[in-house]
Amino acid sequence: MSTFGLLADLPLTIADYTLEGHEREVSSGFLRRSTVIVLAGEGHTGEGEDVVYDAEDHDALRAAGPVQPLAGSWTLGDFCAHVDALDLFPVEPVRGEVSRLYRRWAFHSAALDLALRQAGRPLHELLRRTPRPLTFVVSMRLGEPASAEPVEQLLRRYPTLRFKLDATPSWDDAVVARLVATGAVDSIDLKGLYRGSEVDNLGDPVLYRRVAEAFPDAWLEDPDLEADGTDAVLTPYRDRITWDAPIHSIADVEALPFPPRMVNIKPSRLGGLRRLCDAYDYCAEHGIRAYGGGQFELAVGRGQAQYLASVFHPDTPNDLAPVGYNEPVVGDGLPSSPLAARPSATGFRWES
Questions:
Q1: Helices and strands (H, E) in the chain, number of each type
Q2: pTM for the full predicted model
């Protein structure tokens, strides 16, 4: 049976729903906002987090209130199909279709949580999988000009941490040498596929060669292979190239310039429970490994992404560090990798 087939027939009863706003300053220097969708029915609640990035979209959602026609008795599969047919945005989203995917996942994940709680069962039991300790990396950008000091400082406090680092043109030989000396870099994010964002990083064959050669065991994420000279530089390292930003569907995996060994499966970016489950099945059938990624979640969404990673790909460099590592100032007492498996007794929740 397909992964989605294991979940689709769960009964689900919804009486109403509410919206809960969250906000927090995060390490990349912006005020992150999110909205938790809380579905209620039969004495239980189910939660999912809307990680749309633009404040205007959250303001419009909260101002409109719980206006969607969700009440009734459903199967989980029928409810997800119903949500897919709704326009969940009171006004056109700032970022278009990708924001629609994020919000759709919030409603789907809340419904999954509620259906499981009403059934008195945890997610992994229905998936016939065992949650395992979760390997994670801490994702960081090293400033401009780049410095290895933030990584070295964290390692002095948390010596077993592993890292996913955003490479930029200011990574000179000295910075690279200090990072190599840590032995803690598992993944290099080249950010080559973003356009019109604060993290755009145009393809640079010199930088690509430098990091590919200096970190022979690190994954190389999202290179821009259309920039002059970049494809030729990275051809010998294709078995280490992974993809994140372009992956919204199975079709996106199939459209990659060559078959990947590993891709980032972000539940919110896939935008729906069936789409996510089908992507897991597709990767398993085609021998493609997966790793998870976060979206600066502030509430239940981070734990749900960690839960999924713990049952589908616990041993890969999951960009799902506990939220404390996203704070502008990282505090003491945070857990190191791997995270112990902490699924709730029922529902789609991960105990913090």
A1: 12, 12
A2: 0.95
